[in-house]
Every structure is written in structure tokens, then in C-alpha cells.
Q: What sequence folds into this?
């Protein structure tokens, strides 16, 4: 129980918030908007899972927003050019994985610090995309929205897909050797190396995986509306990292599980709508988000102090 | 310390020297290239432009250096600039304080805000990345909440605007402030025990603690200093622009971090220099300015800065990497960490 | 030792630049043979609206034989526009035409440009009047706000709740429009109520999310007014997905190309804008004529070439009234 202290406290805050909303603003639970909101958060969840795994290995990736945007634009362009769905999905994930591999090669191969590498790639990709696209939307073919399904089925499919992915990753990170490698490398890379692991390959793999997940998230995003906005993904890295941290993933690596991230994504995703339903002015949004992140981290710090003293 | 440590230091010393020289060469190359391509690039007016445009961001980069030397980071300096700017405006316009008093209060606010980071990072030992990620949103959020996003502060008296827009003794006024802070921080980092203790903390926090250093106090001082300088930068920014808005300073922290790392300071801490940061700021500022004169699109500046950062990092990483292929003798590579 | 070396190099750089000092900066007294340089600045680069203005500007530049520089901030930081203008001052352009994100802030730089002899016009959003020669106005902020508010009233029979989606809470021109919308609302439509204003950070997806919440949190909502151009299709998609097409009206300021689908489907009723290409064309024509003396302060009319003769109100050259794109005419436009 104590081991999951952080995840449980976040869950409790989420439940408390949901209860308040149930009493004061029951319209929050209206099915269609709720479904829309959850579907909207599916890409964030996917990306947050990815960045959580990256952080477990004691790295970080702040280029995910730019990769997300670029993959969305690529997918949109291919779709608009008439490529079939499966091909577009495949190529886009490949593009994301390749971009991730670039990050991974620099971090694992040249031993460069991941925060600086991904800062550089973030800027390069973002500016390059902006230069190329100049803000123009891309119109998707009609059959693309919701994978061609009805809106409700499409939304449910998206939500189920992303939660299933989360569940698989959560299980795999604990039970598969590959998953455990991440925690090993994150706790102590040197010990992992001595134990026979290859930390550099693990690091490369996790960045490639992150890129692929960012691409996948972009695909989940573009099927939700008939146009692709090249600016989408702005601020996504902030959201994802905040969710990972609030969810208990340690920046110093080796700690954290994806279910905590799941709860944190839900919590952070509720804050903004809650403001709307509670008729709170919009200009409090950033301050409240900052406060939530700080409180989560402070709680953690105090708990750790109590344990170690 | 023991022999491997000394040889490690020697290698690090050599590395540092190489990195700064490379950066200086890059800066010179930029200068000569843009001078050749841009008609008005090498003029005094343009040099003043470059100085004025990079004064505030340069201040943030300067004060980020001691923090990164300790192995920490501060993502909140840009947001703090915005918050201090509007509070400065509010104190002057709504509370009716005379400008010098408002400025003093703003510096105090910067100190307190830096103090918040200091308490959480130094005292509670929370990870700097996450704390400052939180304060990054919190400070900007307060700025937006106080102004409702809408309110701006303008119509400052000309005597105040001279700080950001006029010259004093041959240089733009704010450059004198910048130089004062630059010299101050350089001395602090390179010539005092304070600076040496920052490096020690960056190298090995636990070791530093056992060696008797007041780790918490030093860390706290570094973050509080950042808060004060961010407030100063906010005042200069307001004078330069003639307007204080809640979104002032958006994105400045990334520029600052880029400049510091470009200048050779290791993001892991322990290694770095203030003059490196100054060169980093100069390199990026000249690049941004020069590309306008070379009639290139603005996006190119961002892309080239990113590429430059990667190139610089890779260049300094190569000797370390090549050393690894020698028979394993000295300490292993530092653990990869954000 | 190496620090002395660096210091020496920096000092020599400073010396180099001092030697290179050229006395003139900003020559608007160009001889007839020299090509005019006009510098055009959008509010931000990568903004489809300003790209469509630029299309008109390019055309004018070609027609008139002037050199056109186009640059703008890619960061939201308010100081960036000033920095670009100062760069242009040093570069020595002949005219600066700027769409101003921050009225007071940018006036600082524009005033400086005028002091150096560079002509200054503003377009789309104005600076302080004493910092520019003319303002090329597609429509006044009051005009835009009134058109939006009146259109909203028309679609809701002047009664009911509505909400606004804006770009960010700090966007200066949006705030100007909001102020005027609220003024018009108070003045003419007492039975209508503005229940909420939400920022979308210029992101279509966020606008969609905000609209979804607004629709659900305010069950009596009758109209969403999206004054930020990516928000119009975003809000429309939200209304469509909520199954409230027709029940909740959507209007906004946006590009016809981005909203065509929704207008045809009846989700979006009206898109207010103006002929952006004409605005761009007019801006460059006015800038060029200002530089070569054909357009003088105090003039009451302006011959805008292929755009006809336009009225000048005070120091504002007005393109015309805002244009309402709706089902009946949206297919005629391709921007």
C-alpha cells in the first residue's frame, strides 16, 4: 500500500474533484461531452506513457510536441494525397520512430544530455514545420474521421485503444524483461551494465519507442476532426511531463508506474473543464495547474523525508 | 583528491578550453560572414541593437549559469520576468509608488519568488526540473490572473524609458547594468569560495555535504539570485518596450539554457564558466540578428541555433567518447541523466 | 591566459565595428533609380491570415516594382516585434508596414523609425497614432465588433446566452474586439448575456475542447462567437459532435477556406472577415506612395490603383466594411 502512496493520493484528489463536480456541476457527466473529452485526452495519455518510460530510464524528451505536430502534418498530407489508412498509419509511425532514433542516437551514442538534445530537436522540428506549413490547415478526406466509423464508435475505439495500450505497457514494463531493463538502467546504469545489460541500447530503444508513440498519438488526434492544425501539440511536452511527474514517475529514474500516470492525466485533464463548469474565470488556469504540480511534488518530498528520517 | 580525479580534471580542463575556443571561432565566423553578406551588419548601430535585444535574456543566462553548475535548472525565470514586469507596472500605476521604490519592491518580489524555488529545491530537496516546471506555470498564471490577461501598463515617464531606450556614456543604458551583473557573477563563480562550492555541489552533492559545505544554503542563494536578476531583467524589459504585459519573457528560459549549454557548461553540473555563457549569448544573438541582414526567414534562426547546439555538444563529446575506446583505466562515464 | 585572449578578441571586434560605422541609416530620400524597400510585418509568422495578406502584398510589390521584406515574430514574446523593427531601422528600409500586436510597446520602435526618416504605416491593428503616418484599416475594431455582435443578435433574435472563444487572454487586438463587443452588447442587446470567454491559445484542437465544455456547462447556450481564426472550425466541430448543429449557432472571424465545409453543412452560419488580399495590396500601395510623396498627410482620398479610390478618415485609409461570408457566397472565395 505504501509503495503506491503517490498513485493513491493522486487518485484520491481526482475522486474528490469528481465528487465536487457531481454535486455542484452534474452537467460534467453528460455522456456525449464526457466521451468527447476523454477521446480528446487519448493522445495525451499515449504521449504521457511514452515520456514516463523515458523518464524511468533517467532521460527526458521535450521534443515530443514537435514530433507530434510533424507526424500529424505528414499523416494529413499523405491522407489528403489519397493514401490508404493503413499505409498512412504505418509510414507515420515510422517517421516518428526515426525522429526518436535521432534523439536516441545522440543521447545513447554520443552520451549527450537528453534534455539538451531534445531541446535542440524540438526547436529544429518546430521551426522547420512552421516554415514549411506557414500555419495552413490540411483538409482530410471525409472517410478519415473516426476511422470511418460513427462518431460514438470512433470515440469509444480511441479511448479503449489508448487505455489498452496503457494497460499493456504497464504490464510489460513490470513483467517483461525489456520493461525491467528500463527500471534497471534508470536506477543505476553502471550496475545494469555490470549485470550484463547494454544501457545504451536500452536508451536508444526507449527513444525510438517514444517517437513511435508520439506518432501514434498524432494519428489518434487527427482522426477526431476533418482538418489538421500544424500548431497542434504546442505545450504537449509540458502536459505529458507534468502528468508523469504528478503520477509518481521520478525525474531521477528507476521509479514510477503507468497507472499513476493514467490517474494524473485524468486529474490534469479535469482541471480546465472543471473551471468551465464551475464558472471560474479562465485566467486562473495556469496558476492552478502550476499549483497542482507543485503540491504533488511537495507531498512526495515530505513523504520521502518522513520515511528516511 | 586521488590521481584519477586529477587526470579527470585535467581532461575536463582541456575540454573546456577547447569548447570555448570553438565557440569563439564560431562567433567570429558568424561575424565575418554576416559582415560580408549584410550591408549594415557591422555598423555600430547594429552592434547596439544586438546588445539591447539580448540584455534581458543575457541576464537570465548569466544567472542560470551558477544554477546549472550545481546540477540544477530553473525553468521559471521567463515566467518570473513576466510576473515582475506586471507587478512593477501595477505598483507604479495602481499603488502610486514612485518608480525607484516600485523597482526596489520588484527586486524584492523577485527575491521572494526565487526564495520559493529555493525552499522547495534546497530545503525540501525536490527535483529542480519539476519544481521549476511548476513555478513556470504558477508565476505566469499569477501574472495572467492579476492582469486578467488584459491589463497592460504603459505611459511610463521618459526618464524611466531612457533606461531601455537611450544611451549612457556611449553604450545603451541597460548594457551598463548587464556588464555590472556579468562582472559580478563572473567574480562570484570564478573567484569566490561560493563559486567553487557550486561546482563541488554539481560534481557530487553528497561529497560536498560530507566535506562540510553548506549545500542547502548555497543552492538557496543561487535560486534567490536568479529571482532578483529576473526582476532586474523585467524592469529593463519594461523600459525597453515601454509596456509591461503578462506574457513578457515567454520562451526566454529556453534561450537562456541554450546559451549556457552552448557556452560549455555541462547540464549535469560541476563544469562550466560564465565567460562561456557570455559567448553563448553572443553567438545566438549575433546569429539571430545576422540572419535578418542576410534576408533569411526567422525560422532559420531557430533551426540553426538548434543545429549549433547539437554540433557544439557533439564536438565536445567526441574526445570523451574517443577516450572511452582506450583501455578502461579511469572512472566510468557519468551516468546519463536529464 | 585564455581569458585575456578572449577579451582581446572581443575588444578587436568592437573596434572593427566602430570602423565600419556608416553615417546614414534609413534613406527615404532615394533617387528615382533606387528601388524602394518596404518591410512588411505580420503579427506572427506562420499565421494563415497574414499569409493571405502577403499574397496581395506580393502582387502589389510586383506591380509597383518595389522590394518587399516580410518578417515577423515566431515567439509570442511581446518584445519580438520591436526587435525586428529595430533591425529594419539599422538595415535602412524605406517604409515599414506593421500589424501591431502590442499597441504601446510597438509604438516605441515605430517612433524611432520615424525619427530616422523611415515612413511608417500600420495595417490590420494600429499603433499609437503619433508613431505612424497612416493606418490601413480593413475595418475599425468597433466596426468588426459591431458586425460580430449584430450578426450574433440577428441569429439569436437578440435574446439568449452566448460565449466567446478568443486566442489568448493577452492578445491585444482580441481584447480590443472583446471590449467593443461587450460595449455593443450592453448598449443594444439587453436580453443577451455573455456567459463565458475562453482562450484557445490559437489552437484549433483546444478551441474544440473548450467549446465542448461550454456547450455542456451552459445548456442554454445559443451561440458561440469565435474571434480567433483557428477557433471557428474548432468550435464548429464541437457543435457538430455534440449534435447541436443549428441549435447552437457558430459565427466568428476566420478564413473562408478553413470554414467552407462547416458553412455548407449549416454548422457555421457566418464568417466575418474582409478581403485579406486587398488589404495586403492596399498596404503596399499606400506604403509605396507614401515613400515617393504621392500620398501626403492630410489627404482625404487615396487612389489605390486597381482597388479604386478609397476614403481616408482622419489618418485611416479604410478598405471598407467587414465582409460576411455565409452559405450564399463562400464558394466564390479561395483564401
A:
Amino acid at each position: 500500500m505504501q509503495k503506491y502512496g503517490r498513485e493513491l493520493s493522486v487518485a484520491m484528489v481526482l475522486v474528490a474533484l469528481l465528487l465536487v463536480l457531481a454535486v455542484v456541476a452534474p452537467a460534467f457527466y453528460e455522456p456525449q461531452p464526457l466521451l468527447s473529452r476523454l477521446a480528446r485526452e487519448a493522445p495525451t495519455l499515449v504521449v504521457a506513457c511514452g515520456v514516463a518510460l523515458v523518464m524511468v530510464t533517467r532521460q527526458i524528451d521535450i521534443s515530443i510536441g514537435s514530433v507530434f505536430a510533424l507526424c500529424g502534418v505528414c499523416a494529413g498530407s499523405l491522407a489528403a494525397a489519397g493514401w490508404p489508412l493503413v499505409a498512412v498509419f504505418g509510414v507515420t509511425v515510422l517517421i516518428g520512430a526515426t525522429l526518436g532514433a535521432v534523439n536516441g542516437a545522440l543521447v545513447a551514442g554520443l552520451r549527450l544530455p537528453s534534455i539538451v538534445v531534445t531541446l535542440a530537436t524540438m526547436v529544429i522540428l518546430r521551426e522547420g514545420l512552421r516554415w514549411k506549413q506557414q500555419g495552413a490547415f490540411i483538409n482530410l478526406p471525409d472517410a478519415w474521421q473516426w476511422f470511418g466509423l460513427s462518431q460514438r464508435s470512433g470515440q469509444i475505439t480511441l479511448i479503449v485503444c489508448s487505455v489498452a495500450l496503457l494497460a499493456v505497457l504497464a504490464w510489460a514494463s513490470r513483467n517483461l524483461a525489456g520493461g525491467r531493463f528500463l527500471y534497471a538502467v534508470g536506477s543505476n546504469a553502471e550496475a545494469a551494465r555490470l549485470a550484463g545489460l547494454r544501457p545504451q541500447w536500452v536508451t536508444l530503444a526507449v527513444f525510438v519507442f517514444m517517437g513511435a508513440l508520439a506518432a501514434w498519438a498524432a494519428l489518434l488526434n487527427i482522426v477526431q476532426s476533418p482538418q489538421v492544425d500544424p500548431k497542434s501539440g504546442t505545450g504537449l511536452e509540458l502536459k505529458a511531463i507534468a502528468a508523469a511527474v504528478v503520477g509518481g514517475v521520478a525525474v531521477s529514474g528507476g521509479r514510477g508506474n503507468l497507472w499513476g500516470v493514467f490517474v494524473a492525466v485524468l486529474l490534469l485533464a479535469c482541471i480546465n473543464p472543471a473551471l468551465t463548469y464551475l464558472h471560474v474565470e479562465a485566467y486562473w488556469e495556469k496558476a492552478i495547474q502550476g499549483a497542482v504540480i507543485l503540491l504533488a511534488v511537495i507531498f512526495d518530498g515530505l513523504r520521502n523525508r518522513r520515511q528516511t528520517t | 583528491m586521488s590521481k584519477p580525479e586529477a587526470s579527470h580534471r585535467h581532461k575536463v580542463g582541456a575540454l573546456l578550453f577547447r569548447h570555448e575556443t570553438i565557440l569563439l571561432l564560431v562567433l567570429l565566423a558568424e561575424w565575418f560572414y554576416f559582415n560580408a553578406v549584410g550591408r549594415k551588419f557591422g555598423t555600430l548601430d547594429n552592434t547596439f541593437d544586438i546588445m539591447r535585444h539580448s540584455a534581458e535574456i543575457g541576464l537570465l543566462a548569466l544567472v542560470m549559469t551558477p544554477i546549472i553548475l550545481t546540477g540544477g535548472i530553473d525553468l521559471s525565470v521567463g515566467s518570473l520576468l513576466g510576473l515582475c514586469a506586471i507587478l512593477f507596472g501595477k505598483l507604479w500605476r495602481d499603488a502610486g509608488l514612485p518608480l525607484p521604490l516600485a523597482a526596489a519592491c520588484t527586486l524584492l518580489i523577485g527575491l521572494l519568488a526565487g526564495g520559493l524555488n529555493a525552499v522547495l529545491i534546497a530545503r525540501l530537496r525536490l527535483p529542480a526540473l519539476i519544481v521549476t516546471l511548476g513555478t513556470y506555470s504558477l508565476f505566469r498564471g499569477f501574472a495572467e490572473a492579476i492582469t486578467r490577461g488584459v491589463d497592460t501598463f504603459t505611459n511610463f515617464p521618459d526618464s524611466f524609458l531612457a533606461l531601455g531606450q537611450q544611451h549612457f556614456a556611449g553604450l545603451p543604458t541597460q548594457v551598463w547594468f548587464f556588464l555590472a551583473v556579468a562582472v559580478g557573477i563572473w567574480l562570484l563563480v570564478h573567484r569566490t569560495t561560493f563559486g567553487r562550492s557550486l561546482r563541488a555541489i554539481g560534481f557530487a552533492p553528497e561529497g560536498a555535504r560530507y566535506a562540510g559545505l553548506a549545500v542547502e544554503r548555497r543552492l538557496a542563494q543561487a535560486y534567490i539570485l536568479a529571482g532578483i536578476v529576473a526582476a532586474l531583467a523585467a524592469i529593463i524589459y519594461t523600459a525597453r518596450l515601454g509596456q509591461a504585459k503578462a506574457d513578457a519573457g515567454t520562451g526566454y528560459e529556453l534561450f537562456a539554457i541554450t546559451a549556457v549549454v552552448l557556452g560549455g557548461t555541462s547540464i549535469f553540473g560541476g563544469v562550466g564558466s560564465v565567460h562561456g555563457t557570455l559567448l553563448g549569448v553572443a553567438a545566438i544573438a549575433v546569429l539571430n540578428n545576422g540572419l535578418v541582414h542576410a534576408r533569411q526567414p526567422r525560422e532559420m534562426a531557430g533551426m540553426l541555433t538548434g543545429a549549433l547546439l547539437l554540433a557544439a555538444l557533439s564536438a565536445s563529446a567526441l574526445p570523451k567518447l574517443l577516450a572511452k575506446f582506450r583501455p578502461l583505466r579511469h572512472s566510468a562515464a557519468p551516468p546519463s541523466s536529464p | 591566459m585564455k581569458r585575456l585572449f578572449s577579451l582581446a578578441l572581443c575588444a578587436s571586434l568592437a573596434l572593427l565595428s566602430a570602423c565600419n560605422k556608416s553615417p546614414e541609416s534609413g534613406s527615404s530620400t532615394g533617387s528615382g533609380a533606387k528601388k524602394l524597400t518596404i518591410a512588411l510585418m505580420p503579427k506572427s509568422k506562420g499565421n494563415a491570415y497574414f499569409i493571405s495578406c502577403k499574397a496581395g502584398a506580393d502582387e502589389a510589390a510586383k506591380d509597383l516594382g518595389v522590394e518587399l521584406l516580410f518578417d515577423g515574430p515566431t515567439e509570442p514574446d511581446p518584445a519580438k516585434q520591436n526587435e525586428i523593427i529595430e533591425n529594419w531601422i539599422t538595415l535602412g528600409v524605406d517604409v515599414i508596414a506593421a500589424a501591431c500586436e502590442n499597441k504601446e510597446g510597438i509604438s516605441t520602435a515605430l517612433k524611432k523609425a520615424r525619427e530616422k526618416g523611415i515612413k511608417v504605416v500600420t495595417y490590420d491593428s494600429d499603433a499609437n497614432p503619433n508613431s505612424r503616418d497612416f493606418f490601413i484599416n480593413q475595418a475599425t475594431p468597433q466596426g468588426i465588433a459591431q458586425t460580430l455582435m449584430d450578426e450574433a443578435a440577428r441569429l439569436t433574435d437578440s435574446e439568449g446566452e452566448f460565449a466567446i472563444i478568443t486566442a489568448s487572454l493577452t492578445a491585444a487586438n482580441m481584447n480590443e474586439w472583446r471590449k467593443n463587443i461587450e460595449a455593443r452588447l450592453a448598449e443594444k442587446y439587453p436580453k443577451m448575456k455573455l456567459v463565458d470567454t475562453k482562450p484557445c491559445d490559437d489552437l484549433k484542437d483546444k478551441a474544440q475542447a473548450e467549446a465542448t465544455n461550454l456547450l455542456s456547462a451552459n445548456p442554454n447556450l445559443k451561440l458561440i462567437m469565435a474571434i480567433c481564426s483557428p477557433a471557428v472550425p474548432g468550435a464548429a466541430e464541437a457543435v457538430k459532435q455534440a449534435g447541436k448543429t443549428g441549435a447552437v449557432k457558430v459565427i466568428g472571424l476566420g478564413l473562408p477556406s478553413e470554414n467552407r465545409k462547416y458553412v455548407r453543412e449549416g454548422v457555421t452560419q457566418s464568417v466575418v472577415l474582409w478581403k485579406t488580399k486587398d488589404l495586403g495590396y492596399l498596404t503596399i500601395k499606400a506604403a509605396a506612395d507614401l515613400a515617393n510623396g504621392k500620398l501626403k498627410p492630410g489627404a482625404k482620398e487615396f487612389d489605390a490603383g486597381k482597388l479604386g479610390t478609397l476614403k481616408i478618415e482622419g489618418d485611416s485609409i479604410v478598405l471598407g466594411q467587414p465582409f460576411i461570408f455565409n452559405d450564399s457566397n463562400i464558394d466564390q472565395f479561395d483564401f
Residues 3-37 of chain B form the longest helix (35 residues). The longest strand of chain B covers residues 167-168. Chain B is about 75% helix and 0% strand.
